[in-house]
Fold this sequence. Notes:
Elements: H1 3-20, H2 25-40, H3 43-61, H4 77-104, H5 107-131, H6 139-152, H7 156-167, H8 169-173, H9 185-201, H10 209-236, H11 242-246
Helix pairs in contact: 3-5, 3-9, 4-5, 4-10, 5-6, 5-10, 6-7, 6-10
Amino acid sequence: MNNYEDSVRTDLLFWHKKMSSAPSFTDRLSKRVQDKINGYIPEKVHKAITVTMEKLFKAVLFGAEYTTGRKMTNGTLVYREAYVRNQISFYQKTASLEGAVTGAGGLLMGLADFPVLIGLKMKLLFDIASLYGFDVKDYRERLYILYVFQLAFSSQQRRNAVYQHILGWNEFARTLPEKAEDFDWRSFQQEYRDYIDLAKMAQLVPVIGAAVGAIANYKLVAQLGETAMNCYRLRLVGHLISDINQNPYPLNE
């Protein structure tokens, strides 16, 4: 094992502990409050939002493959990740600029930021998958991208469940629906909406909207990039972290 792979293994162990940790009191309280708020929203509104989000994600999910470069078929891990980090940095800057512009434009432009940011995030995930050598034309690879997205932007309780699917992806992938229509879009969009509501609502406030939009988008893309890197590391260099399966909490000893 070289020094870089040793560093990756250490990073993955810390990240594993973070992804599999139990929800804190704050996490549980926040989730209960958000669930209560969602309970006040009429069912027809939930359905309308679900349909809108489903169409938006499908459009990006099944369209980004045509604007994504061919998968990288060779190269060391350090070589691949140099390109991955460069892409993350590019999308951070792009999303930050977009957030600043829409945040400065008031309510209507602030609302327009939502689908644009989703498009940027999904395109980043397609690029990262290709750089790690995975074929995004494969339907199940695109579903994997959705689970990576969920993992990055979910409550800790939901994150625990999604992470188990990521860890056992090869087996879990066999149980996935054959059609995108059968995916659980309701849970997917609600978790994402709940997660980013606070940060994005502040973007609609006059005067501070531009600054909030720039910072929020920058951090959200950074979080997604980190999550994606570790998810693909698990699949690419899983042999480096065999002790995760032997001891789920290796850092607690």
